[in-house]
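G., the chain you wanted modeled:
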Amino acid sequence: MLSIALSELIQIFRNRLVLVTSLIMPAAVSAYFIYQHEIFADLGSLGYIAAVVMFTVGAFGLYTTAVTTLASRRQNLFLKRLRSTPASDATLLSGLMLPVTVLALVQVTAILIVLAAVADEPANVPLLAAAVLSTVIMMLGLGLATAGLTNSPEHAQVTTLPVSLGVIAVTSWVGITGTEEFTLLKRLLPGGSATELVLNAWNGGVPVADSLPLLLPTLGWVVVAVALASRLFRWEPRR
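Predicted structure as tokens:
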């Protein structure tokens, strides 16, 4: 698994498109939000900024990159060759997804540390970490599911748009308007409960016991994504 992961990490830094999508664009967007943190804090809150940058990295740095990577490896038959080895499917997929996952976690952590340094620190760091981890797992699962519907790296630019733009739209909706209205809908949409969890973790004022159940909808989307991935994911190109 580690040898596959190392090879994928090298490929990420060699591929300019993937490098821009996974590292440069999320970092640039996050830098803008942090630079204008006072304006966006007035619009929503510091928790809203934290949620937006988390989902920006999750949607573009992790989800889109994962789909593009898997589609590319399927197209050049690398996935087919990997599957001929003794390694299990889970090991192969873990090796392929490990670099983008680690990069996303490092990015989110670094960006949130900068936000805490220029503004106020989060009220509950462990709760924030739980929100980040659950979001990363959800976006990774959605990436595996979407990869099953994606024929090529170019096709990924189309198939990833609904989820990428959707979760960021939900994050902004929940982060700016809260969950006093349309509570159930906002929490059930992908990214909604995770956004509320980040708001509670960063802004404070909500008991931990009331925030922990917000993990359930996100983990529910993980189950849905894994179920879809098991049905849709393909190791060879369609003939």
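The mean pLDDT is 88.

Shout if anything looks off.
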